[in-house]
Design goal:
Belongs to the LAMTOR1 family. The chain is mainly α and 69 residues long. It has a domain of 45 residues. The protein contains 4 helices and no strands. The longest helix has 20 residues. The chain is elongated and about 50 Å long.
């Protein structure tokens, strides 16, 4: 429940993006907000950048994905 609430607060509602009633400035504000949040989250997860990529020719990717980091 706590995780759900915290995750819910990090979601940007883009459902109105297709709405004809949305003003351009509202769309630009949402895009700016999304970009800012993405930059903050990307900067806070540097360990993702250090993980080695999956081997390109592995015959058993499920074992690679299930292994400990």
């Amino acid at each position: 429940p706590l995780r759900s609430r915290r995750s819910g607060s990090n979601i940007i509602d883009v459902s109105a993006a297709d709405s004809q009633g949305m003003e351009q400035h509202e769309y630009m504000d949402r895009a700016r907000q999304y970009s800012t949040r993405l930059a903050v989250l990307s900067a806070s997860l540097p360990h993702w950048k250090q993980l080695p990529p999956l081997p390109s020719l592995t015959s058993q990717p499920h074992q690679v994905l299930a292994s400990e980091p």
